[in-house]
Design brief:
Strand 1 and strand 2 form a beta hairpin. The chain has one domain (3-151): dinb family like domain (Four Helix Bundle (Hemerythrin (Met), subunit A)), CATH 1.20.120. The chain starts with a helix and ends in a 5-residue tail after the last helix. By secondary structure, the protein is mainly α. The chain has five helices and two strands.
Length: 156
């Protein structure tokens, strides 16, 4: 498996895991405002990084107002946007660097592969926070372990 194919698989996992978490949040109802806030941030951050990779202006705030319907719609679109972007790059392209400004206005340069890895790990980190919060609130979080998704054929 080449690096581009590996990254496509990682983003396939990310898309599946985001959908699973959103379903768990919806099932928990209104008692889960913090989880929804974190999920809105996950999706917004994914869009912010995609904007940076495409060298486009930031199109969403990093911490948007949480709304389950908007999150579900954004999640449904984000997976396709990432796969579309990944289809445009080759394994050689992912080692190229991009320059961007972070949310504090600081200028940075990172390789595309480092950004892609960050996006997947950042999302998984916050999904873990959501799971912990849901458990502490007596709710059942989504089971989003990567290996579970692979074993069940949910990650392509």
């Amino acid at each position: 498996m080449n690096l581009a194919d590996y990254m496509r698989r990682e983003f396939s996992y990310d898309e599946w895991a985001n959908r699973e978490v959103l379903a768990a949040i919806r099932a928990a109802g209104n008692a889960n405002e913090r989880s929804l806030q974190l999920m809105a941030h996950i999706l917004a951050a994914e869009q912010v990084w995609l904007d940076r990779l495409k060298q486009q202006p930031q199109s969403v705030p990093v911490w948007p107002k949480p709304d389950i319907g908007q999150c579900e719609a954004q999640a449904a679109e984000m997976g396709g946007r990432w796969l579309e972007f990944l289809d445009l790059i080759t394994a050689g392209d992912v080692s190229q660097s991009i320059s961007y400004k972070n949310s504090k206005g600081e200028e940075w340069t990172s390789t595309i592969v480092d950004v892609l890895t960050h996006v997947v790990m950042h999302s998984a980190y916050h999904r873990g926070q959501i799971a912990s919060h849901m458990r502490a609130s007596g709710q059942t979080p989504a089971y989003t372990d990567f290996i579970h998704g692979v074993r069940q054929g949910l990650v392509k």
